[in-house]
Amino acid sequence: MKNFLFLFCFLSFSVQAQNLRIAFGSCAHQDQSLPILKQIGDLQPDYFIYLGDNIYGDTRDSAVLAGKYAQLGSNPNYQYLKSKTKVLATWDDHDYGENDAGKYYPMQNVSKSLFLRFFEEPLNSPRFEHPGIYTSYEIKRAGKKVQLILLDMRTFRSDLCLYDRQTMQKDSIFFYDLDYIPCSGSDSTFLGEQQWKWLEQQLQKKADLRIIASSTQFGHSYNGYESWNNFPSEKDRMIHLIQKSRANGVFFISGDVHYAELSELKLDGLYPLYDLTASGISQSWHFATPNVNRIQGPVMENHFGLLTIDLRKKRLISSIIDGQNTERIRRDIPWKDLRFND
Ligand SMILES: [Fe+2]
Q: What is the pTM of this model?
C-alpha cells in the first residue's frame, strides 16, 4: 500500500512537472466581488497574469488610486487567488490612471510606484530601474524554456488619432461610433524606442515558447477602438521583429475589450500569429466589434484565459473558461506549428 501511495504521488508530481499552466485575465472592477478570481485559485495554475484594468483607478488623485488597490487587496477572492498561485501583472489605461491615456499622462510615476508596491515587485527588479513597467520571466521546467514577456502599452504611447464623426465616412460594417483612425505618422509609437530595444533582446534569447502579453489587442482587424491597429507601423515592426529574429513559439495574449476571442493573423513568411483575448473578469460589453481575424468566440460572459503547456508532448492548449467552468474557446496547437521553416 505504501508503495502504491508513493507511486501515485510520484506519478501525479510527474504529470504536474510536465505541464505548465498559466491563467490570465483583465478588466476587474474593485467594487465587484470577482468570483472568477476564486475560480482561477481553485485551479491552482502555476501563474496568473493580470493583463490590465486590474482596477478601475480613473483618477489623478494618488490617495484615491491607492485606496482602490487596497480595496482589491482586501477582496477575499483576490486573497484566495494570491494564496494559490503566483500573480504577475501589467497594466492598461484604467489602472494606469485614465481612460485611453498614453505617454503624456502626468501621474504615470505615481501610478507605477503604487502598481509595483501592490504586486510586491522585488526591490532588485529592473522594473524600478527603467521607465515603464515592461518585464519578462523565464520558466525552465522539464528541460524546456517558456518566456513570458509583459509589455507596457501605456507609458510610451503617442497620442491617438481621432476619428472625426463630422467629416469622416465609415465602412458600413461598423454599426457603432468609431473613436480612432490608424495614425500614419512615422513618429507615432506604441512601445517607445527603449522598450523596442529591450524586446529585440528578449526575442534573441532561446525559448521553446514565448507568451507576449499586451494589454490591448494585437491580432484582430481594425475596429475603430484603441489597439495595435491605431499604429500600423508599430504592428508591422512587431511582425518584422519576429521575422528578423527568427523567434519561434510566439503566442499573444491580450485584454481590454470586455469579451473573449481568438484571432489568427496569417502572414507570408511567418507561422500563424495567434492572439487570445481574455477580458472580462467582472466587466462586459453588449457587442463584439467586427474582426475578420476571429477564429473562435466571441464570449460575452465573464471569463478567464488558460494556457496549458504540455512540455512532454510539446503542445499549447489555449482556452477561455467562463464563470460556469465551461470551456468556451479551445485551440490545441502543436509547438511545431509555431515555428519558422528553416
Ligand atoms: Fe483598457
A: 0.95
